[in-house]
Write a structure and sequence with these properties.
Layout lengths: L1 E6 L5 E6 L7 E2 L2 H9 L4 E3 L6 E3 L5 H11 L1 E7 L11
Antiparallel strand pairs: 1-2, 1-6, 2-3, 4-5
Length: 89
């Protein structure tokens, strides 16, 4: 499981674990969980240069991409998330 520590724009910090489960993509912060839920189905870039993919709770890479895009990720530890399913691959 990947553990991510970061902060929101208002300075509040969080530490979550990305679970890879559609019903509960992150655990450890209600606010981070709500952020991921808010962006479900939207397109997010997996890296600064792409590729783009839809955010899905069971897609660890897209959940991490949401946290990177909308918060200040300070640290990532644990196993690297499995690669996202990119359309056309």
């Amino acid at each position: 499981m990947l553990t991510v520590t970061g902060s929101f724009d208002d300075g509040a910090t969080y530490t979550v674990q990305i679970t890879g489960r559609a019903d509960r993509p992150v655990i450890g912060s209600h606010r981070a969980a709500a952020l991921v839920e808010l962006h479900q189905g939207e397109t997010v870039s997996l890296s600064p240069t792409g590729p783009m993919t839809a955010v899905a709770g069971d897609d660890e890479a897209s959940v991490l991409a949401v946290l990177r895009e909308y918060t200040n990720v300070l640290e990532e530890s644990g196993r690297v998330p499995r690669q996202s399913r990119v359309p056309g691959d």
